[in-house]
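Obj: model holo form, ligand = glutamine.
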Amino acid sequence: MSDQFPSSVAQLAAGLRDGEYSSVELTKAYLTRISEHDDALNSFITVCDESALAQARAADAAIAAGAANNLCGVPYANKDIFCTSDVRTSCGSKMLDNFIAPYDAGVVERLNAAGMVMLGKTNMDEFAMGSSNETSFYGRTCNPWDLSRVPGGSSGGSAAAVAASLAPIATGTDTGGSIRQPAAFCGISGLKPTYGRVSRYGMIAFASSLDQGGPMGRTAEDLALLMNVIAGFDERDSTSLEMPDEDFGRLLNKPIENARIGVPSEYFGPDLDAEIGALLERAIAEFEKLGATICEVSLPNSQLAIPAYYVIALAECSSNLSRYDGIRFGHQCENAVDLTDLYERSRAEGFGEEVKRRILVGTYALSSGYYDAYYRKAQQIRRLIKQDFVNAFDDVDFLIGPTTPDVAFTAGCHSSDPVTMYLSDIYTTAVNLAGLPALSIPAGQVSGLPVGLQLIGNYFSEAAMLGLADRYQKNSSWHLSHPSEICAGGPS
Ligand code: GLN
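Output (holo structure tokens):
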């Protein structure tokens, strides 16, 4: 970022409140930056120049009237999975290319109520199905650290936009790693909250028992600030947690002396790149120096997370996506001869290859005769995976390990082999199966590419986890590194 504007949301909000710059000035600076750099990155599907400036003017008026919330006037990028009543919501799919939702998602209502300024809707894997952003109907997003590489997925547009300073913070969703994995690949911080913390109302469904929205930003402190806006009970989401509001930043800037951190031995096996392993050992030693107690733990069913996830998520997606029938939502084929033809061709034309693959596999796993062999078995394994975490949290407060087995891979290299692609979720999916909170923060670089460190906490431990991450970031500088060729300058 430039001298004129700081890069953290905490500092941006303070500058707005102190009148150092207006929200209109800030918003214009980010919009300019998007127009200069997003042709190269493709991190946005829709940029909202006019509505963003209108929101910024309203925010400036609220700030002047002394009626502003903490993040009033701060710009953000919104993953194109959250329904917005005035802006198209595509979910990265041709199926919803022209879809304008009749209402705002619960998360969007909260962002609007806070007076935040939506710069645009970010690129993503189609219906959030992917680990690379390559399944988007709108073309792949490039990783700002190396344009030939993927930014991760499915919230890759949000991650790339934040990493390249096209937005100071963004929303994402995480069904099996889609906040943490792109955060790791792009060198930013991302939090997947406890299942049920953030409303799924108006968040387009992929796998409902796993989907969870969350913040993506530069620092743990910024994640806490956005969590304070987007988290909270929503009676329109049947799995929303009815808990009192809390300040997710209350444990920032606190010592971590009493933290007991477990290192799962299964996360440091042969699947992990050796250089990443060595970097993480160094980061773990750093936590120890800061006062945490480190010990080894075991999550014996870790290897079963990928197969269980890819049965359960696909089964749920086959059901969730049945609503796209060419009648009520989205793309409709032309000149249908009868109802079956309408269904078949609308879906054949509207969905991309990966989405079709998943609907087919999911339907198969749920079909009579195979339900017991696959779906029921996967649910039983899910229970075992959850129990592994429950057992580990008897002895420790947090778990630490890699977010991904490798750094960002080259675009196209896994396209013909979906199973290899699925294996890049090896350290993230178990958390979703158990419904736990977890975050990824930058902890080093291998060959100039960012490496993510994952912290996993017990249910509802977001504030403590953010406190731990904040302590690490106050004593390290990886979260401050920028990809140089894209970020030279920053808004000015
Ligand atoms: N990469 C995983 C998948 O393709 C996770 C996606 C997600 O979290 N939305 O299913």
